[in-house]
Specification:
alpha/beta, ATP binding, PreATP-grasp_dom_sf, five-stranded antiparallel beta sheet, six-stranded antiparallel beta sheet, ligase, globular, 23 strands, metal ion binding
Length: 443
């Protein structure tokens, strides 16, 4: 979904900018890789008619409405790729699988109230705890991390545990881009999704094989980005054996009369019972959506539907997770110091709204690195509930397409296992909605 661009942002002159290399010179590229540790960025030639290809694959949101349709403005970056070594992938996957377990523990601390106010209804936390105690199956999540290829060490920036997007780019588009290129894919996210939906189906009574997949309405998602992600998920579920039905959020109906009489209360607009549902709609919005009445309905009868992602993801889906992790695993090498208020030890800090997404509301104050950025919006301002995290200087890469490219790695998890990698890069300090998606490959 489109977000509001930041007010100001300037890139630090301090980070070393690593030069990219051209893909035709394979031998030279290998030598350059050794010189610049492991992960590296290369320039590539775009495919003929590439914009038509990605549009046919489903990226109908490559340019913002009214924006000039040029390569410079393209969300999908056809002119570069990030190449990772086997050692990079091994380090990233091991560290993120460990992080997943840590997030489960930190999420329990949040759900129990040990981290203070969650800014969510108490009934919602009751629902989350019940879901966790039942062992409700989760499907997927994505860690957004900074990566130091010299030390082979990640730093967690945030965790998208509930509604991560960019599935289409990370599966279909990245895979077809790779055809006839001298590299390998990183994991197999599509196959891992099918396996996970197969597992979820095995936990389901044979009489309940219908999975509703819910995305927000067109007026909220005019670009079609959320729909594209839901289509990928529906395809994987169908291959796993589910019957699938894709609907808009406004077609989800709670029938209070049926609920009061002991009947199943959740239905779609065609009168079909919703018993299992994948929703690309954040839990924190669902349990506070008083306009539709979903807040009261979900909190009181949410357990009558098997939700994907499950309600226990409320324990890890907000930025409250960051100080919870630091509180429980202080000084862990994959974590950055994070606090519920501006801690005296933080000279270089990033302020993040609890419920912010895609860089909304983020403020960076890092005087030691010359980095200052303000992405406050009308919705997320200085009064919004926030956490403070230590600033992590990010490595910048030079390319023919742009002078400065700052990558953030999206590490895909299916259940508790590493499943794939995607890379988004920006030319400014905050990775927001306009960050470019760049193919990621393995040597």
């Amino acid at each position: 979904m489109a977000e509001t661009p930041g007010k100001t942002a300037r890139v630090s002159p301090t980070p070393a900018v690593v030069s990219a290399v051209d893909i035709p010179a394979v031998a030279d590229a290998a030598a350059d890789r050794r010189r610049f540790y492991n992960m590296y960025r290369i320039n590539v030639s775009p495919r003929p008619f590439w914009s038509d290809i990605i549009r046919n694959e489903g990226i109908v949101f490559n340019w913002d409405e009214g924006e000039a349709r040029t390569e410079a403005n393209s969300y999908w970056n056809e002119r570069a790729t990030y190449v990772y070594s086997e050692q990079d992938i091994a380090a990233i996957s091991q560290q993120c699988e460990e992080l997943y377990g840590m997030c489960l523990e930190a999420g329990q601390a949040i759900m129990s109230g040990r981290m203070g106010d969650t800014y969510l209804p108490s009934m919602a936390m009751d629902l989350a705890r019940e879901s966790f105690d039942r062992g409700d199956v989760d499907i997927y999540s994505r860690f957004d991390v900074a990566y130091d290829p010299e030390a082979r060490q990640i730093k967690l920036l945030e965790y998208n545990s509930d509604t991560p997007t960019s599935l289409l780019e990370s599966t279909v588009c990245q895979d077809t881009w790779l055809h006839d290129r001298p590299y390998k894919p990183i994991g197999d996210l599509g196959a891992a999704l099918v396996d996970r939906w197969t597992f979820a189906l095995q936990q389901t009574p044979d009489t309940r094989r219908l999975l509703h997949l819910i995305h927000v309405d067109m007026d909220i998602d005019p670009t079609g980005e959320d729909r594209a992600n839901v289509y990928v998920m529906a395809h994987a579920a169908r291959l796993a054996g589910w019957d699938v039905k894709i609907i808009e959020l406004s077609d989800v109906i709670y029938d209070a009369t049926k609920g009061a009489s002991g009947e199943h209360p959740w239905w779609d607009a065609d009168g079909v019972a919703i018993t299992h549902a994948f929703k690309l709609y954040p839990w924190e919005d669902m349990v506070t959506d008083s306009e539709s009445g979903y807040d009261r309905a979900v909190c009181s009868t949410g357990g009558s539907v098997t939700w994907y992602e499950p309600a226990w993801k409320m324990g890890s889906s907000t930025k409250l997770l960051l100080p919870a992790l630091w509180s429980q695993f202080m000084h862990h090498p994959s974590l950055l110091p994070a606090y519920l208020s501006k801690h005296e030890s933080l000279r270089n800090w990033v302020r993040k709204p609890l419920f912010g997404r895609e860089g909304d509301g983020v403020v960076i104050n890092a005087p030691d690195y010359g980095v200052f950025a303000d992405n406050t919006t009308d919705f997320f301002d200085a009064q919004s509930p926030c956490v403070w995290q230590e600033y992590a200087p990010l490595r910048a890469y030079e390319g023919q397409d742009r002078e400065v490219n700052i990558p953030v790695l999206g590490v895909w998890m299916i259940g508790d296992k590493f499943a794939g990698l995607s890379t988004r890069e920006a030319s400014h300090p905050i990775t927001s909605h306009d960050a470019r998606f760049v193919p990621s490959v393995r040597e």
